[in-house]
Amino acid sequence: MPLSVLIFEDNPLLRESISSLITLKDDWQLKGAYENVLSVREHLVEHNPDLILMDIDMPGMNGIEAVAQIRASNATVPIIMLTVFDDNTHVLDAIRAGASGYLLKKHLSTKLFDSIDEVLSGGAPMSPSIARMVIASMQKTSDNRYQLTPREKEILSLLSQGNSYKIIASQSDISLDTVRTHIKKVYEKLHVHSQTEAVSKAIHEKLV
Description:
It is built from 10 helices and 5 strands. The mean pLDDT is about 90.
């Protein structure tokens, strides 16, 4: 069975170019090439593709919203996003929505086949700069998964060093009551009930 492919790209010249690349492969079959994703669910049901190439910026509904719609009914079909910029702020949103990988449009002629082979093998094709964005976002989320403010992090760090409330107040140049208020908030955010639990969690989860 040939690999069936759907393309969603609003630029007619680029859509035609991608279509031509797909038809170069004897074992690939272009099922459809569309200028928008307004009927993406119908196209998905009609063609049941093995792979989708999805532009991010399209009129009416963008590719990120389309990915979310696809994932609501099909969790497995690989979706490679096509983008002009490798620092596009929509990249992370598309990955969260369920995109399988990314390909810069300027690399289509040289990397399309490799990217498709990679995603079909279970990989996640993306440029190095996009990969760095994803890693940085994951690290940021991990580092502040409890939504601690900079002041709360500072006080938790001082608390973990064995400092008393009085010393923390002095070093942070705030009142003792303010320290107690911050620590109460820290306990609530960490879901703990004592200093020992807070310090143990902070050290174990590398919050300080």
